[in-house]
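User: Some background: our group keeps a shared notebook of sequences we're curious about, and every so often someone picks one and asks for a predicted structure to add to the entry. Today it's my turn. The entry only has the sequence so far, pasted here. Could you supply the structure so I can complete it?
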Amino acid sequence: MKLYSKTQVCIVIVLSVAVTALSIAGIVAILNNSKSNTSSTLSTSIEMSNSVAAGSLVQSTQPASNQMSETRAVPVTTTPQYAGDYGEYSVEEIGNISIYEKYNESVVNITTEVLRINWFLEPFPQSGGSGSGSIIDERGYVLTNNHVIQGAYKLYVNLSDGSRYEAALVGADPESDLAVIKFTPDAGKKLNPIPFGTAKNLKVGQKVLAIGNPFGLERTLTTGIISGLGRPIQESETVILQNMIQTDASINPGNSGGPLFNTRGEMIGINTMIYSPSGGSVGIGFAIPVDTATRVVPQLIKNGKVRRGWIDVQAIQLFPDLVNYLKQSGKGAPVESGLLVSTVTPGGNAERAGLKGGTTAVRYGSTIFYIGGDIIVSIDKKPVTSIAQLYAALEDTSPGQQVSVEFYRGSKKMSTTITLSERKK
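Assistant: Of course. Here's the predicted structure to add to the notebook entry:
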């Protein structure tokens, strides 16, 4: 065994420590250099991705190099982010933000006052309901729902800047649940009307946006899709709102009268009602198609009402007891639904077209009518089985227009053409 002196042992230990220290330092340096290169590569990749994303929105004023062209061809696997006036937001978010920023000030909050009777039988004003409305003209015309302003003693329009104006009713149409009111803006105050689109080409699944004042929370934006089209909603015994747009965009009390937008920022509907067992939004809301407003609004502004066509008859809706009685009396028809013509107006359009009323008076409860007359089953190929459907079939007609009417006289099916008169309220 070889022996070493103390001096030799110390020298060996010092050299070993030095070598170890140098090895560790080298390893650390290599790791730091690798991390720096990785970060630089990642940063370059992100910058190039942002350049590609920005290039898809704004055309570059600089010629693209071959390297950039190759980069643009690489598919993006994540949602692209965009920088600009809106900061870093997705394409969908930018669309939502731009529509809201452009038109939220065009959506007004409508509040009403109604008259009540106190214990001394004296009328006094009281705060009524509230809803939403859309500015549709720079002169201060506002489109809303009829039920928002119905029965109001006074109307107020509240704008986004906090200003409040008293408004006047221009015209209302209960059958379409639409109304137009007007306020006079201050001199120099510029209003931004919401443009009308169309509901003719809508598709289920299409994205929509709603702006309104739910629960008094002014100018609230909600988004969703069209979840149904062509929904008939019966609002009363004589009113069926036709072709309603169903949406899952949150609509709550206070949204009524506000606009429903497509992604181009066009109004495609007027938010009107919700289906809700609880009173809050459950994802089933309904909007009147804007095409109805396109037809109705000019008449409301010009005449204060909508002039519609009418058939000069008094009709009774068939019901099981009446159907059985008609069969037993020999005055029945091979149908169990339709409108029995009780009387025709002497000299009216129905009489001129050959329709016949009943001749035998009968009583049902407190109602007296005549049986033996014709039974109307359709108008312009639209089935008519109730009074509400009669109103609905004539809702978009005008006086002087001709319609085809199908009816039964006994067991024989017949048809005639009637030139409509003007419906009297």
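Suggested note for the entry: The domain at 207-303 is CATH 2.40.10.10 (Thrombin, subunit H). The first helix runs from residue 6 to 57.
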